[in-house]
Amino acid sequence: MLFPSLGALLLATSVVAQDLSEFTGTWSSGSGKVITGPNFADPSEAAFKYPDVAGISYSFTESGYFELARYRFISNGSEPNCIRGVLGWLHGTWEVLSNTSIVMTPIWGDGYQQIQDPCGANSNFVENYNGTEIYSTYAFSTDAADGRRRFQLFEHNGVPLPPMFLISETPTMLPTNKLRNVSAPATVDKNKRELGSESGSGDRVNVADKAAVVLSMAALGLSSLLI
Ligand SMILES: *[C@@H]1O[C@H](CO)[C@@H](O)[C@H](O)[C@H]1NC(C)=O
Ligand SMILES: *[C@@H]1O[C@H](CO)[C@@H](O)[C@H](O)[C@H]1NC(C)=O
Ligand SMILES: *[C@@H]1O[C@H](CO)[C@@H](O)[C@H](O)[C@H]1NC(C)=O
Ligand SMILES: *[C@@H]1O[C@H](CO)[C@@H](O)[C@H](O)[C@H]1NC(C)=O
Fold first, then answer.
1. Residue 136 CB–ligand 3 contact under 6 Å
2. Which of 10, 115, 180, 193 is deepest in the core (most CB within 10 A)?
3. How many domains is the chain built from?
4. Ramachandran class of 83: left when φ > 0, alpha when ψ lies in -120 to 50, beta otherwise
5. Domain for residue 125, yes or no?
6. Where is the secretion signal located (predicted)?
């Protein structure tokens, strides 16, 4: 091509034009074991079906609904034996802003997450999670090796999430209406279903504080994500 920069410019323009149909479908990171929909979350019970391995998955409909599924391990360098597992599920509506940032607004009271902290006073619990997800930008590409469609989200601070691949052009999602009755207690102790080690450090850290730490760690991208 004589003017490759013109091609790049046209490409950039088409990104700004935001063809939302490109988002439509279900995306999953890594080996594709974490997938939104009924094989991951059971919101009526605030329960999860544990995937074999960690990963993230997002589904989008062109009509403006999203669902996300996350199973992440978060390590803390000063406590190398205390890797926390966090399972999370959320759904609601999404939009792309004119500056290419993406805002995902949850259906209030439907989202929840399970935190498995082998060193915590309460080592395994479920809590509500309604955080609005804000991503600074996104990128689509085609994998050079196998031609799969690739999608990447960047956190509000620019840190990229693991790349995801299109696993289904039809979104695999639970119903997009409100699915939980959240007059139930916000925190459910799941110790009897604990996956992690039993060894407790004996510290008496408040559960809510600990959850807030995990959440803000995830939000700030300070933690290493072993995905
Ligand atoms: C890591 O663990 C130490 C010791 O418990 C704690 O003081 C520190 O805040 C933790 N770091 C993060 C990022 O959570
Ligand atoms: C999320 O929703 C639950 C249930 O409605 C509520 O108790 C909780 O305070 C909310 N949490 C946040 C962080 O908004
Ligand atoms: C895009 O605009 C929104 C709304 O004004 C803002 O919150 C967000 O930080 C902006 N994104 C970037 C990457 O500047
Ligand atoms: C929500 O739970 C409350 C208390 O158990 C119950 O009275 C109410 O009927 C429930 N609402 C729905 C929509 O399930």
1. yes
2. 115
3. 1
4. beta
5. yes
6. 1-17
| Ligand 1 geometric centre to CA of 213 (Å) | 9
219 C-beta closer than 6 A to ligand 1: no
CB 122 within 8 A of CB 116: no
CA–CA gap between residue 95 and residue 197 (Å, rounded): 40
Measured in Å, residue 94 CA sits from the centre of ligand 4 at 28
Out of 78, 83, 216, 217, give the residue to mutate to test ligand 1, the one with the largest number of ligand atoms within 8 Å of its CB: 78
Q: Mean of the pLDDT values across residues 34-38?
A: 98
Tokens 């063809």, residue located: 19
Is 98 a pocket residue for ligand 3 (Cβ < 6 Å)? no
Residue 10 in any domain: the answer is no
**Ligand sitting nearest the alpha carbon of 183:** 4
Q: Model pTM greater than 0.85? A: no
Range of the structural domain that residue 120 is part of:
16-178+190-226
For residue 210, give the 3-state DSSP assignment: helix
Tokens 């407790």, located at residue? 200
- The answer to the question of residue 57 being in a domain is yes
Task: Give the pLDDT mean for 127-149.
Answer: 95
pLDDT tops 70 at residue 141 = yes
Give the mean pLDDT of 198-210: 33
Task: Assign residue 68 a region (left: φ > 0; alpha: ψ between -120 and 50; beta: otherwise).
Answer: beta
